[in-house]
């Protein structure tokens, strides 16, 4: 199914679907001794389960009033005849690509209508989410809308009389409206104390939120500090590329002109190391030398011939840059990244700016906090401390380089190294291609004990997001959260 066809179907889908409910297993038997709200929630759930999800057209016809008036903020007015015709064509025409409707948590409200003290109807308000359901795939979020519907009593039964469907938002806008209660519940279930989420749409930061707790009973503040692990690398990548764009560094110049590790002086392969080789993870280094039995740095293959993820490569680059420019990594990042990006709360190490009272301690799979390890030296590959606000600003800054330094930006997202089908590594970023609309996603993740982070953006749409978590059970959270984000369902399947 093409993206265009999906969008076309869901324009109508958004026009006719109203709300779902947790009472999905309801029967059509009228339940006595039930509150009006619960009764109408049950009726609503039954209506959409049978009428739309199961496409019981006879039931739908009987439940919709002959005088149905349906008003939509995008596609205009529908009477019952047009409503039934469109339902059969668009909602029930292709069961292999089935539009599904889910009620946004805690969004439903009910108001009675009386005449001479007798209940004759009720008004419902709520918000619903639209999904596309395909066999063997997670449901894909396609948009949301608000609704107001009027139900009228017909003896012991209810009929749908009037509907207003409005405030329709596509999936990329829905991202900023993710329900806090659902996220907090997800965190609690998986023993992850806190989560930071930043949403970027069309190159602009639209939302940053922090959910959960720092300690039991203490809400995590908006300026919570998270350790971001390997999300340090994109910052150093951008520093390097900005130096290249300024003409102060060449991507293919030998780093040996500025730094040679003592462990490598006798090996001529060190002459092959360049910024490009480092940023594409083709140095030939292990991830970390301390994992070697003798704690020595060595080449495991000729630089430039294979891809092997390496933190040591970024540390090698750091030492070369510091020697070349006579400045610390912190000072260079401040000048070329932090200041122009508007980042004021990001640190390479535990300096005086790191307020421990707002630091999200890292937790194991049982929800037990690790002892906090403090670092007092910059590392180009790991250990950066930041807020979701600051790092989201960084992502906006990265996207802005498409106009600020177009040639270098294109080189950054080029497929320098093939990893798998439609899977590559560019300059400092992992790349997945082949998404709907010929889009690609650039991403980087970070993992340490009790730390899980992710930064993702699309160069084509300029949409992206940042996710910080301080718990080991982050995968289970991502499985539920990611499909709600831009191209997240497809990314979860691919990755």
Describe the fold and architecture.
- 42% of the residues are buried.
- This protein has helices spanning 3-16, 36-53, 57-63, 80-91, 171-174, 180-189, 232-245, 275-279, 311-325, 329-341, 388-404, 406-412, 474-481, 488-494; strands at residues 64-72, 76-78, 97-103, 109-115, 118-134, 140-154, 157-170, 194-201, 204-215, 218-219, 226-227, 385-386, 417-420, 423-425, 430-435, 439-448, 451-457, 464-469.
- The chain folds into two domains: 3-171, Nuclear Transport Factor 2, Chain: A (Roll), CATH 3.10.450.50; 178-236 and 328-494, Beta-lactamase.
- The model is unreliable at 1-33 and 173-177 (pLDDT under 50).
- α1 (3-16) packs antiparallel against α4 (80-91) and α11 (388-404) packs across α12 (406-412).
- β5 (118-134) and β6 form a beta hairpin.
- It contains 14 helices and 18 strands.
- Helices cover 31% and strands 27% of the residues.
- It has a nine-stranded antiparallel beta sheet with strand order 10-9-8-18-17-16-15-14-13, sandwiched between helices. Strands 1, 2, 3, 4, 5, 6 and 7 form a seven-stranded mixed beta sheet that branches. A two-stranded antiparallel sheet has the order 11-12.
- With 495 residues, the protein is an alpha+beta fold.
């Amino acid at each position: 199914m093409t993206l265009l066809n999906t969008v076309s179907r869901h324009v109508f889908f958004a026009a006719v679907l109203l709300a779902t409910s947790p009472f999905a297993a309801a029967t059509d038997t009228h339940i006595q001794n039930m509150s009006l709200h619960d009764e109408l929630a049950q009726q609503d759930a039954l209506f959409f389960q049978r009428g739309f999800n199961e496409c019981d057209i006879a039931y739908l016809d009987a439940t919709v009033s002959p005088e149905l008036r349906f008003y939509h903020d995008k596609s205009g007015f529908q009477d019952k005849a047009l409503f039934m015709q469109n339902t059969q064509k668009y909602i029930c025409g292709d069961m292999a690509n089935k539009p599904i409707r889910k009620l946004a948590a805690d969004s439903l409200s009910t108001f009675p209508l009386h005449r001479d003290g007798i209940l004759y109807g009720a008004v419902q308000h709520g918000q619903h989410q639209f999904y596309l359901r395909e066999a063997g795939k997670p449901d894909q979020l396609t948009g949301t809308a608000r609704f107001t519907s009027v139900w009228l009593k017909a003896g012991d039964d209810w009929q749908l009389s009037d509907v207003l469907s409005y405030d329709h938002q596509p999936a990329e806008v829905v991202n900023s409206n993710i329900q806090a209660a659902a996220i907090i519940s997800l965190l609690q279930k998986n023993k992850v104390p806190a989560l930071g989420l930043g949403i970027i749409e069309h190159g602009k930061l639209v939302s940053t939120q922090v959910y959960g707790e720092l300690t039991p009973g203490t809400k995590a503040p908006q300026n919570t500090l998270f350790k971001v692990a390997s999300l340090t690398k994109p910052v150093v990548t951008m520093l390097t590329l900005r130096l290249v764009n300024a003409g102060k560094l060449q991507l293919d110049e030998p780093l040996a002109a500025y730094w040679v590790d003592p462990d490598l002086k006798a090996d001529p392969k060190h002459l092959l190391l360049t910024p490009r080789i480092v940023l594409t993870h083709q140095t030939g280094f292990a991830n970390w030398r301390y994992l070697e039995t003798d704690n020595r740095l060595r080449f495991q293959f000729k630089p430039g011939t294979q891809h092997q993820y390496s933190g040591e490569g970024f540390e090698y680059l750091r030492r070369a840059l510091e020697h070349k420019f006579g400045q610390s990594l912190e000072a260079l990042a401040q000048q070329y990244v932090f200041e122009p990006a508007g980042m004021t709360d990001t640190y390479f190490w535990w300096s005086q700016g790191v307020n421990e009272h707002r630091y999200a301690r890292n937790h194991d799979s049982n929800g037990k906090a690790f002892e906090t390890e403090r670092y007092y030296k910059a590392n180009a590959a790991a250990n950066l401390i930041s807020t979701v606000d600051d790092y989201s600003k960084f992502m906006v800054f990265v996207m802005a380089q498409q106009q600020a330094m177009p040639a270098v930006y294109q080189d950054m997202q080029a497929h320098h190294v093939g990893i798998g089908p439609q899977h590559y590594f560019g300059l400092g970023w992992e790349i997945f291609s082949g998404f709907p609309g010929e889009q690609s996603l650039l991403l980087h993740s970070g993992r340490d004990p009790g730390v899980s982070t992710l930064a993702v953006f699309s160069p084509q749409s300029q949409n992206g997001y940042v996710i910080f978590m301080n718990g080991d059970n982050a995968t289970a959270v991502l499985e539920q959260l990611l499909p709600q984000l831009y191209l997240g369902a497809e990314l979860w399947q691919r990755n």
